[in-house]
Write a structure and sequence with these properties.
- This protein has three domains: 106 residues; 93 residues; 122 residues, no CATH class.
- The radius of gyration is 24 Å and the shape is globular.
- The protein contains 23 helices and no strands.
- The protein is mostly helical.
- The longest helix has 23 residues.
Amino acid sequence: MTPLLPNNLISDLEKAMTNRSAEAGAMLQQITDLFLLNVGHYSAEQLDVYDGVLNELIVKVEVAARAKLAQRLAPINGAPTNTIRSLALDDAIEVAEPILSQSNALDDDTLTHCIAVKGQEYLLAIATRNEVSETVSYQLIVKGNNKVLGTLASNPGAAISDPSFGLLVQKSTDDDWLSECVAGRKDIPEHHLRELLSKASEIVRQRLIMLNPDLSEIVQEILPVNAPSNANKALGPSSDYRTAERVVKSRELTEAVVNEFAEEKKLAEIMVAIAQLSGLSVYEIEQLFMGVWTSPVAIILKAVGFHLRTIDAIYRSRLSDGEVIHNDLIQTKAEFIALRRPTAERILRFFYAKRAVSISNLSGGPVPGPSRQLVRCG
C-alpha cells in the first residue's frame, strides 16, 4: 500500500514544524500539492491526517503563504474541515475572504461564529456566497452595515426569512441603494414590500416601477394621489449628456483625465466617465454621485481602481464656492479605504446580474453585460 505521505517528506515535515521559516512555507506547498492530487478520494482517516498536518503548518507560515493556501482550497469539495475553519477565522482578511466567499466545507455554526467575532469585511465576504441560509442571513442583517445588507439582498442565493425582511426594510430607510436592493428581491413578502415603498424616496419608487410596472398599483394604493413626494427630481437624467459623451470619447479614459474634469468642475464629463468605467448608466451614476454620498459611491470608485485624491476631487467638484464638506465624504473615504478592490468588483457583478435579470424579464430577451475597461492610474 502506498504511504499517505512519502517517507522523504516525513523528516522534512518534522524539521519544518520546529521553526517558523521559509521551510514551513515550502513544506505547506508540497503537502497541498500532494493533497490535491487525489482530492475527493481520501478516506475519513486519510483526510484527518492531511487536516492535522496542514493545521500544524499554517500557524508556522506568513500571511502570503496562508492566503495562497486559502485560494487553492476554497473552491475544492472535500477540503479538510479544520483547516478550512482556521483559514476562515484568520485575522488577515486576504486569507479569510476566499474561504468565506467560496468554500462549501464551512457549516452555519462556523459562519455565524465568524459573524459574531469578526468585522464588516468578513461579513461582506459571507454575503457573497453562492448559498446563504436563513440563519446566516439573519445574523448578517443584525450585525452588518448597509454595504453588507445590500450585497446580501442582491444575492439570489441568499435565503431570507420573513422576520429578516422586516429588519431589512427598517434598516433601508433613508438609503436609496439598499431600498432598491431589498425591493428588487423576488421573494420579498408583499406586506414588507408595501412598507418599504411607503417609506422609499420618489426616485426609488419610480425606478422600481420602471423595472416592474406592476408595482405602480401598489404605490397608488399606499400613497394618496396628491401626496407630497420625498423628491421632486425628474425620472430621467437632469442633464443632456450628449456633448459630454463626445468629449469623453475624444480622450483616453484614465483616472488622470477624470481628475482633470474634476478640477475644471465638468460634472457632466465626470458622470459620463465614471459610467463608462463602471458599466453603469449615466442616470445611475448621476443619482448616486450628485446627492448625498452613500456606500455605492465607495464601491464603484474602488471597483474602477481610483485613489483617494480622485474621490476628494470628484466630491469637491460638486460643491459651490464656499460650500463646506459634509460627513458623507468622510464616511465614503473610510469605506473606500476598508474595502478591497476584488470585493468591490464582486458587489458590482451582483448588481449587473440582478439588473440584467430584471430588464430581461421586461424585454423578453437577454441583456448584454457591461463592457470592462482598465483604468490607468496616474
